[in-house]
Design goal:
Blueprint: H1 2-12, H2 16-60, H3 65-83, E1 90-95, E2 104-114, E3 125-135
Antiparallel strand pairs: 1-2, 2-3
Length: about 150
Amino acid sequence: MEQHRQNRDGSRDRGSASVEIMLVAPAIVLLLLSAVALGRMVNAHMDVASAAQQAARAASQLRLTVQAQGVADQTARAALADSGRACQDFAVTTDTSHFTPGGDVTVTVACTTQLSDLGLPLPGSHVSRSTASVPVDSYEYVSDGRR
């Protein structure tokens, strides 16, 4: 009699694990996709910060402001290409207003990362922006007409 009661009580719970999994699975998938989106944004920010730092350093080693701006752009593009970052929109802004011995060079890099392919209710893209400033060597001569 007791054995019959256990079977009857156990059969009532039959199939409930399947229902629980079906209720929890969408939440788990949403959580995983959110983690992927966050990872993309963090990775993009780190890549853009590195590109800005490399570009500012390369620009600070030159003597002409026009050359510094061109080299900063090329260096940032190369750094992002080496990291495997494919930017939809890409912008490099180089501030050489303090490009004098003892001054500094400031480079801002912006890169747009796609998020729409994840199927989440997020904006379709995210703009990562980073600024780096590097001092110009005090003992180098800047030859663009300024003294």
